[in-house]
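hey m, so remember when u said the tokens were messed up on ur end? i reran from scratch. heres the input so u can diff it against urs
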Amino acid sequence: MSTYRTQYNGSLRKENIGERVKLVGWVSKKRNFGQLCFIDLRDTTGICQLVFDEEIAPQVKDVRNEYVIEAEGVVEGRKDINPNMPTGEIEVIVDKVKIINSAKTTPLIIADETDALEDTRMEYRYLDLRRPIMQQRLKTRHAISRSLRDYLDNNGFLEIETPMLGKSTPEGARDYLVPSRVHPGSFYALPQSPQLYKQLLMIAGFDKYYQFARCFRDEDLRADRQTDFTQVDIETSFLTEQEIMEFTEEMLCKVMKEVKGIDVPRPFLKLSWTDAMNRYGSDKPDNRFKMEFHDLSKLFAQSEFPVFQGVKTIKGFTAEQFHASNKEVKKLTDFVKKNGGKGLVVFKMSEGALSGPAKKFLSAEEERALIDEMGVKDGDTIFIVADEWRKACNALGALRNEIASQQGLKKPNEFSFLWVVDFPMFEWSEEEGRFVSEHHPFTMPKTEDLPLLDSDPAKVKTNAYDIILNGYELGGGSMRIYDNELQKKIFKLLGLNDEDIKNKFGFFVDAFQYGTPPHGGLALGFDRVAMILAETDSIRDVIAFPKNAAAKCPMSKAPTPVDPKQLEELHIEIAKDENE
């Protein structure tokens, strides 16, 4: 195979008994038994047990964990078979060994289970990545990439790269800016997505494009978000929304079969945005578990309970066999408030009757109607939020997810895909005092809603579609605006005047004048897909060198100050902190 090895450690089986092999790798574990010595040698494929007899054992007496060694010997059958190891039926009797490199004691255990905190794991990421579970996660990521590329290549998509250094345009998050040395005072922006470029490729006539695109957004981080990330960017011409959704399903089913060995039924469930919010309180609902919402607004229309009076929406759900103490209910109430709700009303079911502080405000008829509506049984708990429609949905949706997590209802080895469609075109921003795009400003409104752009923009729906898996937005897309005047109209509804449009999108709008085809596409959050299929709950586990929640790299310490001479060349001066 090579000068260093004849085989990989994890590939040896009982069929290799009697063969002479040469192996290399890291010492995972060393055990001394009198004059005999055993070493578990690890490489990227797995672990193989090496046996050193009394003649050769002295040569490895100083060897410790993570030393790099080269060993030669003959494969023999093990008397004490280890069923937990793929190589557990064999061992290698070593007659020749070479220490390639020594190693300090590592600051974390190099094994699937480690006691190291995440900050330590990220500071010593090169050691963390030696752990078999981390290597498997990145192998899963690779398998997903290979499957996606194979599908796209075989279906006529052309991979085209778009610029990393582009123009700063408003796309929903802060840009990462790159100063230009040769154009003082001017800046490039790292792409939040290749949105404009991929639409320009459709205008250029390429028909089917894809790219594993690196994207950058200067926003607050969380477990499933990074400052720099990868998306599988796809754009097509002359395909309908339904046709785009169909090939996306086909592509994802291929990935699930090849990577996870799972046959996913088609077609995927399809929910309108309004339906998803009403039933699950989320535009990315997790439907692996129940707890669907009930609209209780009519039931409590005449309620004497002050919390239910004068509100537009009253929604609730039932958590089956959920037992919460008063202290836990208070924590859940605080959780609802943290997620934008006014408060939380809780009823517990016991011996055929409801209990809870709000029980005294219910009439006997309301109590019976609530029990019937919610279908509660003894041991169940009802959670209710009363507020404006969107706030009630969001707060109750967050609570639904929290309780599902507490009850262990989110099984990592279960996979449920669905589409959310018919999104609103706009959302009103109280902070900015204007409409902002629900997706982005290039999304095509539904044809039947075009008149509402002049009379009631808040009611306009779009030809947009998000693909959801297990409560995560895997990706989203839309049919794009391809009419110049309509695109300008949308820009103006978003508060951009003619000068703003020219300065920010001039090159893009100009291109629309030269024959633009109907087009649409979508982008999959590749890191997020890998996270879910690798069955972990942190996107950092499937990225080789991620940033932490503070947007820093604990290993390289980036971002760091730079030499003043570099700043001078870029015509940049750092403002002094007045508090210093």
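this time it looks ok to me. The longest helix spans residues 132-154. if urs says something different then somethings off w ur setup not the seq
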